[in-house]
Write a structure and sequence with these properties.
Elements lengths: L6 E2 H31 L5 H8 L3 H14 L7 H12 L8 H5 L2 E2 L1
Helix pairs in contact: 1-2, 1-3, 1-4, 2-3
Length: 106
């Protein structure tokens, strides 16, 4: 899919699972990415839980939402790398959460 036909992440997740699950999936993607960047490696669900100091059950709910949107992915790693590449290619302005939602997917 070319850049012209790529669609924003927010549109893709809402069409697939709706706002509530979509937001949970995207939140997990970003939070997982930040935890992994801080750890220096792709984190497990337990490491994610520890990093964000939340319950393991909540972490699994968030992970499940991610898997609902992207069942073909074992980990958010590929998506997170794609987002970081696209953000890096933008201007040097600080990136808000809205920028992540505007990332275009093939």
């Amino acid at each position: 899919m070319t850049r012209e036909t790529a669609r924003p992440l927010a549109v893709v997740v809402v069409e697939k699972v709706g706002w509530r699950q979509g937001l949970r999936a995207v939140t997990y993607l970003a939070a997982w990415g930040l935890a992994s960047d801080a750890a220096g490696h792709p984190v497990t669900v337990q490491e994610y839980t520890d990093h964000w100091n939340q319950s393991l059950s909540l972490s699994y709910k968030e992970r499940e939402a991610f898997s609902t949107v992207w069942p073909e992915l074992d980990s958010p790693e590929v998506m997170w790398d794609q987002i970081k590449r696209q953000v890096r290619n933008r201007s040097s302005k600080s990136v808000a959460a809205a920028d992540a939602l505007a990332v275009r997917l093939p």
